[in-house]
């Protein structure tokens, strides 16, 4: 669409035959994009708000790491609300990772986890599922109405059900004006998954969504001043990262890594993570439940942390804001990350035109 501007920084950066050369080519391109985005103005508003915490296998969260972690860890899913000026100067409101967790329980992995508890399922849910807010309740807290939302995007579609948001599967659209921004590979692959991938996608989660509510992206794009969507293939075939210029620098969001420890493993206090990084010589640790493109995911995580740059609160770690961040929990001891991002808030919410 004409309102989106294509970015060319990473064109050809992954074509080298030698994987390490690809890493360095992507790192150089990420540095160039970082300089360009920082030369512009920050977005007027950026807010992240916790929705729900769910159990997740530690063996996936820190793939291949040695250690004595419990089998499960907590992942905190957050909603990100971003306001920016598009290329025509119009104020737009973007929701990043608006997980409709109330209607995603049919995702096979979580359904099996629930069923495995048998008669104790309600007790288990009360213990390990921490429900703090829904997308609609969080928007109401901010004073935003569904019709104020212009765009939705997810770094990938694992567990997501967007049919209530956009219409589909018999639902009327709750967000009447919003369009979904998604990489074409992600949208197409989610419609014909192979068996081990479909364990992480909500059945019917995109079924019946009208075509005119979806913007399929084939390239990295600049949405407007201070906001870019950058392809970061790896965790899924069509994974992308959301890059936002804030007063605290460039915040990069995806689920390629479950914590900042995963992007700076040598500084991690999570058992086994630093040891693995030293032994393997790895500069990142993958979030690998489906392992669709592990080599690409490694490269994408280098790309993400290069774009982000050092965190202003602890320069040992990059300035990322994972869409699902590892969070400590008493039932899952020693899984708390060394550095926790938490909820973020920059700027003041602006009222959309006509509100």
What structural keywords apply?
single chain, 355 residues, alpha+beta, Metallo-beta-lactamase, Chain A, nine-stranded mixed β-sheet, five-stranded antiparallel β-sheet, 24% strand
Could you give the topology of this structure?
Layout: E1 5-6, H1 19-38, E2 45-57, H2 58-61, E3 72-85, E4 91-96, H3 108-116, H4 121-128, E5 130-131, H5 135-142, E6 151-153, H6 163-166, E7 179-183, H7 184-189, E8 214-217, E9 221-224, E10 227-231, E11 240-246, E12 249-253, H8 273-280, H9 294-308, E13 310-311, E14 314-318, E15 324-327, E16 345-347
Parallel strand pairs: 4-6, 6-7, 7-8
Antiparallel strand pairs: 1-9, 2-3, 2-5, 2-16, 3-4, 3-15, 9-10, 10-11, 11-12, 13-14
Helix pairs in contact: 1-9
What does this structure look like?
This protein has a single domain (5-329), classed as Ribonuclease Z/Hydroxyacylglutathione hydrolase-like (Metallo-beta-lactamase, Chain A), CATH 3.60.15. It is built from nine helices and 16 strands. Helix 1 packs parallel to helix 9. The two termini are 25 Å apart. A hairpin with a 2-residue loop joins strand 9 and strand 10 (227-231). It has 355 residues and is of the alpha+beta class.
């Amino acid at each position: 669409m004409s309102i989106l501007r294509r970015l060319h920084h990473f064109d050809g950066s992954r074509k080298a035959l030698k994987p390490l050369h690809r890493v360095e080519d992507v790192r150089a391109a990420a540095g160039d994009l970082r300089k360009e985005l920082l030369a512009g103005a920050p977005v007027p508003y950026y807010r992240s708000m916790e929705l729900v915490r769910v159990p997740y296998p530690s063996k996936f969260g820190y793939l291949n790491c040695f250690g004595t972690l419990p089998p499960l860890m907590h992942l905190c899913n957050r909603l990100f609300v971003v306001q920016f000026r598009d290329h025509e100067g119009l104020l737009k409101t973007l929701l990043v990772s608006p997980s409709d967790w109330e209607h995603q329980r049919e995702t096979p992995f979580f359904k099996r986890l629930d069923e495995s508890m048998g008669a104790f399922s309600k007790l288990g849910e009360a213990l390990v599922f921490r429900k703090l807010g829904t997308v609609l309740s969080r928007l109401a807290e901010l004073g935003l109405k569904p019709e104020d939302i212009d765009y939705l995007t997810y770094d990938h579609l694992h567990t997501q059900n967007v049919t209530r948001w956009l219409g589909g599967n018999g639902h009327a659209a709750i967000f009447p004006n919003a369009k979904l921004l998604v990489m074409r590979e992600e949208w197409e692959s989610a419609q014909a998954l192979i068996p081990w991938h479909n364990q992480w996608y909500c059945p019917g989660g995109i079924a019946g969504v009208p075509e005119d509510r979806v913007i399929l992206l084939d390239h990295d794009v600049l949405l407007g001043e201070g906001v870019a969507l950058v392809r970061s293939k790896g965790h899924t075939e069509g994974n992308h990262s959301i890059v936002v210029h804030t007063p605290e620098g460039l915040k990069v969001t995806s689920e390629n890594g479950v914590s900042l420890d995963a992007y700076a493993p040598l500084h991690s206090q999570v058992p086994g993570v630093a040891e693995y990084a030293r032994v393997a010589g790895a500069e990142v640790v993958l979030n690998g439940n489906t392992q669709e493109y592990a080599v690409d995911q490694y490269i994408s995580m280098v790309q993400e942390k290069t774009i982000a740059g050092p965190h202003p609160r602890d320069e040992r770690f990059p300035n990322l804001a994972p869409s699902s961040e590892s969070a400590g929990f008493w039932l899952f001891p020693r899984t708390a990350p060394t550095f926790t991002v938490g909820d973020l808030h920059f700027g003041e919410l602006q009222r959309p035109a006509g509100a």
